[in-house]
Specification:
Elements (H helix, E strand, L loop, with lengths): L5 H12 L6 H7 L4 H16 L4 E5 L3 E5 L2 H13 L7 H14 L5 H8 L3 H15 L5 E5 L3 E5 L2 H13 L3 H14 L1 H18 L6 H16 L14 H14 L5 H13 L14 H15 L9 H23 L9 H7 L1 H18 L5 H19 L6 E5 L4 H14 L4 E6 L4 H7 L4 E4 L9 E3 L6 H26 L8 E2 L9 E4 L5 H14 L5 H14 L4 E3 L2 E5 L10 E13 L5 E10 L7 H9 L2 H7 L6 H5 L2 E2 L5
Parallel strand pairs: 5-6, 5-7, 7-8, 10-13, 12-14
Antiparallel strand pairs: 1-2, 3-4, 9-15, 11-12, 13-14
Helix pairs in contact: 1-3, 2-3, 3-9, 5-7, 6-7, 8-11, 9-10, 9-11, 10-11, 11-13, 12-13, 14-15, 15-18, 16-17, 17-18, 22-23
Length: about 650
């Protein structure tokens, strides 16, 4: 809800008590402000009344008046009497000070104080604080004695700063800005609205926040109209695809603006969030058909993953289809996109990224398309959201509770577990003597026990009353076990597309396999696993450092199978030739800094081309529990490791 200040409330009271037109001049004299400031007050009052479905009538040469009936009068008077006088919060006021300075070539402190209904000393303090904020930028506030203040800096930096500033503003602040620019030049706001509408029609999907985009475009046009233009070399940094699109848009939209402004505006429109609601009035075009087909193709490979409800499935799939349509728009127009979280996506959802990549590469050959790594990562995030949501419908972890205390204590323990971790399937409580029978008769993912004992299944020892530390350790173990189970199911169920069986020897050579009894820590293990690849100059030392840093920064997402980590870095991090190495430990070592895992196997992967699918091939082999069991044998040899295979079962 828009709030109004004490002066604006007084003006509103006066208008309500006088059911006739009153000129701006008379109002400004009565309330001792300039006509310009009074108009800004009326703008806010008009927005405020609009929320109450009451109109402020503004008639040239006559003035303003409020049209209301008796019930509306009582309603608005009641609201005014109920509300405290509103004072702009300090942070909002300072943002508006900055906005006014960005709009005007010169603005006096007296005028700013009048606009914001504060003292000149308050504005002086605000300017000092804004100086500190702008110290972090290339902009600065310049003060001219007896003339006023203005913001100085490169034009491109001023425009970018305004865009960032606008996105941080409240609804009330935005309403002030929109009316300010509109009052300056109605034609500018109309042109901005037309540009937004034309772009929506051109790209065939709507913007999620068209008003915000329109205001930012209007500000840019306003700056240009006042002679504050972008440098002539601004467009030189962009690739031919964007320049071509700018030319197309300026011709189609009849924008009548220079190329630099057009490019800057285009950048905002291409980066703007789009609405998931399709444009129903536009017929399905070729990209829309391909987007729907591609979404189906991506999801068909996940056909064994648990299904969503119809409503949730529709929502997720529509979002994926929309994103694919936007992606196709960029590809058709040769618009490269920068994905700043590309490395994080590759590390945090490695299987989904690799799966998405393999499906897109398979599909693009049919349609003459090309998806670069940045686009693949964005699409993988949408696929990942669907996979993770579906995982909520999958059966939870089977957790066996073993307690050596009495029945009452055991039941209290189980009851607390069910309340605090409802996503797990609790089996028990059972006695310690009964544990062997349960773990051989059904699938158990985790054992929670009050007494330590050895088991091949992950165990967490706790006190029977479950301390806070116990609960934390259980939740941590449940999260890790759930992640591993999801990865394992994902590898097992997706359609890889290979029609032939293959061995580990098809993926790496014997000299890149090493077996150690034990190692002091995971960093040493990674360095040793990668050493033969570095020695043969297949990768550079910085690639090894980047792999270690990836684990430190992003966590243990590379552990995608039990006791097995697939470590890698980026294509540009020092890969000379594609290669793979494997290090096997007879004694597990702790992996990672947080949410640590015990691992026995480290697979180092370095790919040179986008098309490499070695991670999926290796995952298919090592997903097999029999293969992992064989790797854990005390007397395993390199030759035996090379014989591990993925069997393709033909129907």
């Amino acid at each position: 809800m828009i709030k109004i200040t004490k002066r604006q409330k007084d003006i509103l009271h006066f208008l309500l008590e006088n059911d006739v037109f009153i000129t701006v001049k008379n109002l400004s004299e009565r309330f001792d402000v300039s006509s310009r400031t009074l108009r800004y007050d009326l703008d806010l009052i008009e927005y405020y009344l609009k929320e109450q479905d009451i109109s402020l009538e503004r008639k040239p040469h006559y003035g303003v008046r409020i049209q209301f009936n008796e019930s509306e009068y009582k309603s608005i008077i009641g609201i005014l009497n109920r509300n405290d006088d509103y004072q702009l919060p300090q942070e909002e006021r300072r943002r508006l000070v900055l906005f006014y300075l960005l709009c005007e070539s010169l603005l006096t402190i007296e005028h700013l104080a009048e606009l914001l209904e504060v003292s000149k000393q308050t504005i002086q303090t605000d300017l000092e604080e804004l100086d500190k904020e702008l110290d972090q930028t290339s902009l600065k506030i310049v003060r001219k004695v007896r003339l006023g203040c203005y913001v100085e800096g490169d034009e491109i930096d001023i425009r970018r700063y305004f865009s960032n500033l606008y996105t941080r503003m409240s609804e009330s602040e935005r309403s002030v800005i929109d009316k300010y620019v509109k009052d300056k030049c109605i034609k500018i706001t109309e042109k901005a609205s037309r540009i937004v509408r034309n772009m929506e029609n051109f790209q065939k999907f709507n913007f999620a926040h068209p008003d915000e985009l329109r205001s930012i475009i209007a500000f840019n046009l306003y700056r240009s109209s006042n002679g504050m233009v972008l440098p002539n070399n601004y467009t030189h940094q962009f690739e031919a695809g964007r320049l071509s699109l700018v030319e197309k848009l300026t011709n189609n939209f009849e924008m009548n603006i220079n190329e630099n402004d057009a490019m800057f505006i285009l950048e905002h429109m291409l980066d703007a969030k789009v609405d998931s609601t399709p444009q129903t009035w536009i017929e399905q075009d070729e990209d829309g058909i391909i987007a729907n087909e591609l979404a189906d193709f991506l999801l068909n490979g996940l056909n064994e993953v648990p299904k969503l409800s119809d409503e949730e499935s529709t929502s997720f799939i529509e979002n994926l289809q929309l994103h694919l349509k936007i992606t196709l728009f960029r590809i058709r127009n040769k618009l490269n996109v920068e994905n700043q979280i590309l490395d994080r996506v590759k590390v945090s959802i490695p299987l989904i990224y690799e799966y998405t990549k393999s499906r897109l590469i398979e599909y693009e050959a049919k349609k003459g398309l090309y998806f670069n790594e940045e686009e693949i990562a964005y699409i993988a995030m949408h696929v990942g959201a669907i996979v993770e949501k579906r995982a909520l419908y999958a059966p939870g972890l089977n957790v066996l509770v073993a307690c050596h205390f009495g029945i009452a204590t055991s039941k209290i323990m189980v009851s607390r577990l069910a309340a605090m971790i409802p996503e797990i399937n609790i089996i028990g409580p059972v006695t310690l003597d009964e544990v062997p029978k349960y773990i051989t008769g059904q699938t158990i993912d985790l054992i929670i026990t009050t007494l330590k004992f050895d088991s091949s299944i992950d165990t967490v020892q706790v006190s029977p009353l479950l301390s806070d530390e116990d609960v934390y350790r259980i939740k941590s173990k449940v999260y890790k076990s759930t992640y591993l189970k999801q990865c394992n199911n994902f590898i097992k169920n997706f359609n890889y597309g290979s029609t032939e069986s293959y061995k580990l020897s098809d993926c790496l050579v014997d000299k890149y396999i090493q077996i150690y009894d034990e190692l002091p820590d995971w960093r040493t293990a990674i360095r040793l696993a990668a050493r033969p690849l570095v020695d043969d100059r297949l990768i550079e030392k910085r690639y090894v450092d980047r792999m270690i840093r990836a684990v430190e920064e992003f966590g243990n997402y590379m552990v995608i199978l039990p006791e097995t980590a697939f470590v890698h870095a980026g294509i540009d991090d020092g890969v000379n030739e594609p290669c793979v190495s494997l290090l096997v430990l007879k004694t597990p070592t702790v992996f990672g800094n947080q949410n640590q895992e015990l691992i026995r196997n480290i697979v180092v992967i370095a790919v040179k081309k986008r098309e490499d699918d070695i991670i999926l091939k290796l995952a298919k082999i090592l997903e097999n529990p029999d293969n992992r069991k064989q790797l854990n044998q005390d007397h395993i040899t390199v030759n035996q490791i090379l014989e591990l295979k993925h069997e393709v079962k033909l129907c």
